[in-house]
Write a structure and sequence with these properties.
Structural class: alpha+beta
Number of strands: 4
Strand content: 15-25%
Number of helices: 4
CATH superfamily of the largest domain: Band 7 domain
CATH class of the largest domain: Alpha Beta
Helix content: 40-55%
Shape: rod-shaped
Length: 148
């Protein structure tokens, strides 16, 4: 017995042509999705903009001690040093001394000798100096702190 191949019908021929077209569409869709994923990953790891970097510390500039009038006929003798950012050679200390006087004037002895309050005052002074010096000063240190 011999087997003869049956001739293809019009419906069978159309079904055979659609299968490769669907496969090509699916392949193109997969390639596009992969390209988007790779492009997004490349942007995230290589090209995305980074935020402003933290300033690097530079030299420390010590200023002369000053006396500040406190409440109740008391005074505070305070010395400060400015932590400059890298690239800043020196800063005019008059702004820092003025800000220190404004920060501590009129406070009571109890307020300036309380460790928690003194840390808060120092933090506020450092924040004020960062604004005044526009990125040239990044911190402040007390070099002298005497009340009477």
């Amino acid at each position: 017995m011999t087997v003869t191949a049956m001739p293809e019908t019009a419906a069978g021929a159309a079904a055979g042509e659609e299968a490769p077209k669907k496969g090509k569409k699916k392949l193109i869709l997969i390639v596009l999705v992969l390209l988007l994923v790779v492009g997004g990953a490349a942007y995230w790891f290589v090209l995305r903009p980074t935020g402003p970097s933290k300033p690097q510390p530079g030299t420390v500039s010590a200023l002369d001690s000053i006396q500040v009038n406190l409440a109740g006929d008391h005074y505070l003798r305070v010395g400060i040093a400015l932590q400059l950012t890298a690239g800043t050679k020196e800063a005019d200390g008059s702004k820092a001394l003025d800000a220190t006087i404004n920060e501590f004037s009129g406070l009571t002895v109890a307020e300036v000798t309380d460790p928690a309050k003194r840390r808060a005052l120092k933090k506020e002074l450092a924040h004020r100096l960062e604004e005044l010096y526009e990125g040239e000063v990044m911190g402040v240190y007390f070099t002298e702190f005497v009340t009477q």
